[in-house]
From TrEMBL:
Function in brief: Putative oxidoreductase.
PANTHER family associated with the record: DEHYDROGENASE/REDUCTASE SDR FAMILY MEMBER 7B, DEHYDROGENASE_REDUCTASE SDR FAMILY MEMBER 7B
Domain of life: Eukaryota
Any GO molecular function: oxidoreductase activity
Presence of the UniProt keyword Phosphoprotein in the record: no
Keyword match Oxidoreductase: yes
Name of the molecule in the record: Short-chain dehydrogenase/reductase-like protein SDR
One Gene Ontology CC term in the entry: membrane
Family: Belongs to the short-chain dehydrogenases/reductases (SDR) family.
Gene3D superfamilies xrefs: NAD(P)-binding Rossmann-like Domain
């Protein structure tokens, strides 16, 4: 898959999985552009990785997305791959109102699901209009397939991302736009460190272990042949879906 593109935009590339993937592709010689809200982190990462570029934006400000997309596709006309990696996660219990807030629910829905869907709406038609190969990716989670009681809203948003990407594949069948879902298990990053005490001994992959595993798949397969790219415990979860519901869709002629 890595041979299928030359220039990749990684949205949410200032920490964790997004930063790790950006650095990995940068080392492969790809043109990498990272986005994020914090200019200081963008400057720090691009300074440490000469040739990598950055663009400051906040995906949660939905009204600004069309303008940002216009700017990015104008500034980088050779852009042929996008990974949307930004995410928000909070632990809560429906039994205790104090464990969450309306604002937290709205934030998770916006960052994890609404913003990526709007970005797809504005980006994919641009790729289609070119008639050349392009790849569009979103990071979901193993929790999209087997939810945890720890983070109900997060589970639901990532399940929504999975269903959305399956549907995009159905709609884009026969085109040159590839749709890939990156499916992490529990990975030791800034996103998950706050929940370690509540995970009851669940073992997390290190970021390096996660990257090695997904790039083993990404680097050895054609983008058009990839659907869910998972690692660790998320492999069995995504495979179970692919061999059950996914098989039903395939047999129905819809695929995805």
């Amino acid at each position: 898959m890595s041979s299928s593109f030359n220039t990749i935009l990684i949205m949410g590339g200032t920490s964790g999985i997004g930063e790790g993937i950006a650095k990995r592709y940068h080392k492969q010689g790809k043109k990498v552009i990272i986005t994020g809200r914090r200019e200081n982190l963008l400057a720090e990462i691009t300074s440490a990785n000469p040739g990598m570029e950055s663009y400051t934006m906040d995906n949660s400000i939905l009204a600004d997305i069309p303008g940002h997309v216009d700017t990015l596709f104008t500034k980088y006309p050779d852009l042929d791959a996008v990974l949307i990696n930004s995410g928000a996660m909070s632990a809560s219990s429906i039994k205790d109102l104090s464990t969450s807030s309306d604002e937290q629910v709205i934030k998770e829905l916006t960052v994890n699901m609404t913003a990526p869907f709007i970005l797809a709406r504005h980006m994919i038609p641009r790729f289609l209009s070119r008639g050349t190969e392009a790849t569009f990716m979103i990071t979901s989670s193993g929790l999209a397939f087997v939810p945890s009681p720890l983070a109900p809203v997060y589970n639901a948003t990532k399940s929504g991302v999975h269903a959305y990407l399956v549907t995009l594949r159905q709609q884009l069948k026969g085109t040159k736009v590839n749709i890939i879902e990156i499916v992490p298990p529990l990975v030791s990053t800034d996103l998950t460190v706050a929940f370690q005490d509540q995970l009851k001994g669940a073992k997390a992959l290190t970021l390096q272990q996660f990257l090695d595993e997904i790039f083993g798949t990404l680097d050895s397969n054609e983008a058009k042949d990839l659907k869910e790219v998972a690692a660790g415990t998320a492999v069995d979860r995504s495979n179970a879906w692919r061999s059950s519901i996914g098989e039903l869709l395939k047999n129905s002629g819809m695929g995805g």
